[in-house]
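Field: sequence (string)
Field: structure_tokens (string)

Example rows 1 and 2, in order.
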Amino acid sequence: MLTNKCIRPLFWSSASRYISVVREDDGLLNLGDLVVPAWSQDMNHVVALRGRANRVVTQNGHELTKQDGKLLLQTLKRYNQESLN
């Protein structure tokens, strides 16, 4: 039996920061993400997040790599430093 207690709407926190890692084609046979188009990876297309998501562009494919971990760590460190200033 499904009750109202099981259904919870998704709320976006106004205090949160959002980062969109977008895969784009670099034009040199690196076709970017062949599964999800670049425009669809940008969270600024979500109405509730429009203008609040920072966009970071990379030329990798769809899969996650070690470079993605490094990119996310660098990005988080940079945003953390900005918030402290």
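Row 2 begins here:
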Amino acid sequence: MLQKCTTLKPDHECLFMKKDHCTFGEGFCHPIIDSCLGPECEHVQTINDVKYCDAYAYPANKWKWGDCPLATNLKKVEEEKKSPVVQRKFKKKR
């Protein structure tokens, strides 16, 4: 069962909260970065007009060396780029 946050996201369930403290190293979650936007990622939650990731306490670290592994906004963009015509040609060549 998730605990309710007692730091920046009061009364919201948080992965990083234990009964008496936040388990994230700095003791609080960081807001998302621009890479989390686009078509917005499904893990983004807005609390008191600030956007946070519900999967990572420090989202910038997940983008440091490439794409975030849980970025649902990237998967949607990639699916839109696939052309049905190209997929049919690929199947015929096999």
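free_text_note (row 2): Residues 3-93 form one domain.
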